[in-house]
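Researcher: Structure for this, please.
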Amino acid sequence: MIDLLVKVLINAIGVYVAVQVVPQIKFPAADQLTSLEGDWWKVVAVALILAVVNSYLRPILKILSFPITLVSMGLFALVLNALLLLLVAFLSDQLKLGFTIGAFPPSLDANAFVGAFLGSIVISIVSVALGLLNRGRRIVT
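Model: Predicted structure, token format:
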């Protein structure tokens, strides 16, 4: 249970950094996160969706796409991460959370895919960096 909460917190920080860095990602609730006013809970909800997608759907898709990833020397893994971030944007639109990438949803264009691609790279870098800091928390028994 604690590990899921830590993943959600790390993803929330990653989403916040991606919103600040990638111009195609728009999320009004992230602007209010620093003051903890308004709809800060929407950032936590998007982070929870991202944690669930990364925990359950991503491993299955990685196994299914292993041949393509192998042929592309690992580059398809970046495309897969971008597609999963677009899925998170779609699910958050269904829940009326306001997380959009480019014009997606509703329209998927090159600008949205580039934004998702860059956003997934930023979120991955933040997640790896904070995950390394999190390693010290775990005690091996």
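Researcher: Any notable elements?
Model: The first helix runs from residue 2 to 21. Residues 29 and 39 are 5 Å apart (CA to CA).
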